[in-house]
Amino acid sequence: xxxxxxxxxxxxxxxxxxxxxxxxxxxxxxxxxxxxxxxxxxxxxxxxxxxxxxxxxxxxxxxxxxxxxxxxxxxxxxxxxxxxxxxxxxxxxxxxxxxxxxxxxxxxxxxxxxxxxxxxxxxxxxxxxxxxxxxxxxxxxxxxxxxxxxxxxxxxxxxxxxxxxxxxxxxxxxxxxxxxxxxxxxxxxxxxxxxxxxxxxxxxxxxxxxxxxxxxxxxxxxxxxxxxxxxxxxxxxxxxxxxxxxxxxxxxx
Length: 253
Hints:
It contains nine helices and seven strands. By secondary structure, it is an alpha+beta fold. The protein folds into three domains: 2-136, Aspartate Aminotransferase, domain 1 (Alpha-Beta Complex); 150-202, no CATH class; 209-252, no CATH class. Helix 5 (160-167) crosses helix 7 (187-202). The radius of gyration is 23 Å and the shape is globular.
């Protein structure tokens, strides 16, 4: 079992807009690798058995379970893990300390699984029920300022471009950087992450840019491997053709 969240959620190409949510969830799980399929099927069963009153929905490219009072819990399969998210998790009494802060929202709490055996059905059922109760009691999300660690503030202050970019970011992106630094367990790791944050900001990139970049590279490799058209190469060839055609047209005149 791992704490935290990561980028690159897996999606199913078979999903259609007009499908009902439960069908989408079933298809989504069916196309997953066996290890994550087993985890997701088990999570789905645990959540639905915890409270039949929950509504199964499809939102943000993943299964979402809501009560009449709002979002309760959801899960999504990633490249190496399956992440379970409690949308009011900050108020859950985490007796086993399995939940961790999500980088994109200060109230969400999540836990990652890599094997089905890691799922504690009794504990997760308890957390789902507690989450439902919190919503029913009027769980409030109050806006709180982001507390940037001093070590990060000092590092950003030494790079004007990085600081300008960081200061102009939306709250969610700032939070990702802050959580990235504050979740480091060792001082060396923390300082390495601070350096990475400053470097990303100086280049005008968000924390997940590296994941997005890798994803684009992988898609490009698969496209070439399948023998599909490489649009970047086509564009270059087309431009060259137009150039030659234009030159040839002039010579005839």
